[in-house]
Amino acid sequence: MTTTVVSGLPSARSEFSDAVLVGAIVDRVCEKMLDDYRINRFFNNRPVAEHAKALKAYLNVALSSDLDASKLLDAYFAVAFGRDSPKSRTSAGQNFVPLPDVVRAEEARANNLLCPAHRCLMKFHPDDAHYDVAMAHLAAVLGELKVSEAGTYRLTMLAESVRDAVLGRRVYDRKVA
């Protein structure tokens, strides 16, 4: 598996190397996303603190060093989107053979996983509208925390640059400038 890293990361590292600031951003964004009916169905029903802890661990490594953080990313996806008890295969729609176009789309998404646990999120078929909700929460939190305009721009561009990867459309190779 490859880890997603974006071109603006080195400039974001200098501003967001403060673990306290990153922690505050993550705590508030996780809380907002888990409280939002439009996207909370994607997330595991674990407490906000568990979601935030796993995401903080990943971001603190990704934003502060050149180390490979793929295991931490996998841990975050497992905590945030994994399910402890899978639903029965007799759920509505599970007993029907999918149409060929649906199968091909699923195969394409399965080949674009960021890490093994990313598959947990992909099963829920997130799309751009869901990502837009998450981006709106990020922007709101950055405003609440009075992050500088330049910092807000860098962080939102960083988040936007991984949209396709998170939505299973493309995986980026780890390249740090």
From TrEMBL:
InterPro entries: Globin/Proto. One of its GO terms (molecular function) is oxygen binding. It comes from the Bacteria. This is Uncharacterized protein. The lineage of its organism: Bacteria, Pseudomonadati, Pseudomonadota, Gammaproteobacteria, Methylococcales.
